[in-house]
From TrEMBL:
Keywords noted in UniProt: Membrane, Transmembrane, Transmembrane helix
InterPro entries, sorted: PepSY-ass_TM
Claim: Membrane is one of the keywords in the record: yes
Organism: Alloalcanivorax venustensis ISO4
Taxonomic lineage of the native organism: Bacteria, Pseudomonadati, Pseudomonadota, Gammaproteobacteria, Oceanospirillales
Highest taxon listed in the record's lineage: Bacteria
Name of the featured protein: PepSY domain-containing protein
Membrane-spanning intervals of the chain: 144-165, 194-219, 350-371, 392-410, 425-443, 450-467, 487-506
Amino acid sequence: MKAGLRQSMAWLHTWSGLLLGWLLLAMFVTGTSAYFREEISLWMAPELHHSQPSPDTPALAWAALNAKAPDAKSWDIQLPEARSPVAQLRWQPDRPQAEDGGRRRGEQAVMDAGSGELLSPRASRGGDFLYRFHFELYGVPRIWARWLICVATMFMLVAIVSGVITHKKIFKDFFTFRPGKGQRSWLDSHNATAVLALPFHFMITYSGLLIFMVMLMPWGMNAAYEDGWRGFFQDVFPREEPAAEGGAAMPMVDIVPLVARARDTFEQPVRRISVDWPNRDNAVIRVSTAKDPHITDQRRGGNPTLVFNGGTGELLETRPGDEAVPGAFRVYNLLVNLHLARFADPTVRWLFFLFGVGGTAMVATGMLLWVSKRTQQLRGKAPGAALRLVNGLNIASLTGLLGALAAYFAANRLLPVELAARESWEIRVFFLTWLLALVHALLRPDRRGWIEQLAAITVLWAALPLLNVATTDSHLFSATAWRTGALAGFDVVCLLMAATGGYALWRVVRKQPVRGRGPLPQRRTAEDGA
């Protein structure tokens, strides 16, 4: 009975991983990159690289908004932090046409934190495109894309659980690696990458489903609230609404003393300033500081905040930012924050990134193992159409996707800054490159296809730092890049990607294909898969 269960789990593990494995691979690659989406976005906006925060930044942002939108309904200032050297200015115009499809349409600008100059970075979706693609794909209706992602995630969860059941010697196998053994080598690689971060793989999969619980299981909220899940969230996370109308015109107090008071009160740097009805007699100013991140923090709000009267500077309220959160929401926040690494410092973010790379390798080696096993079973015969299709899709989903990523970054540097709909053209380059790789892989779904695409991605990733040197002054060999470590780190990762591609290319070229000889007889076990 035990052997029958393990064999059944092996079959389930194989096919749950294969059927949506190509989508899972894309999710892992883009999701892993999203741990550094702010750094990617910064690299893709070289116009922002010279911004240097100073003690005068709040006053400069205050003056910029007074000049740009003195009669707005609201202001919001995001001050620079470690991952963003610029100040983000947003405001809500006080006019009826600010409503767009039921959603408020605000305006925004980016300010040099040292000079107060409003900057005009090139149009780009940056790391946000990769982050959104991870769970919404692109060009697909949002609801259908999210359902497809959830189905793939459920398949991933089934593959993880069935894989643990199948491999009864899973921890022993972790320390076993037999290089140059074809199918056995891929199996050892698959086992090692799966066991190395097994808790992470389970957490990232389960928490990914939990994030979409409102969509997947809305019945309880629909039964308890007249407005369904909207009523639930309004009850649990009520929004603080400003006064319905602005008062009479009245100049506001200087922001600098309010910032200093908030900083001294909470002993943390100020990160955000928001204003309701600026330059009116009913203006309200909120100054929020940073806080030590906690793994159960809420997604929005919760930062220590002082609330002031905008006209007089009188302190209206002190919010310590440690409001009690029910236990159930702490558990939910825990899993969501783990999935998105919101609490993480750079060291932990790099650790999550490496675990994500391990997850990508786990899915990739599983797909390659499936092809390797069936190729050996051919005993020298020509592969059929189905096997050629799977191998071609493997090439396109692995090397093709990595090549598309490199092309996306290259397009950011090569496309004219004044190009209309420039951010859309960057994304088009990504998909056109991926489509080209798919066509090539389907035409050459064999060793030659792997060699040619590995050579292409090696050249593309190696070219990115050189392209950066040719087009910007914030490259690997400049002080600007090292002053903002993320910029130098991006180029270093590109070189590591090129080195990895080059090593894989060398291994594939070096290994001679075996023809006319079948595999040696061996005992079939559940660990070998279906």
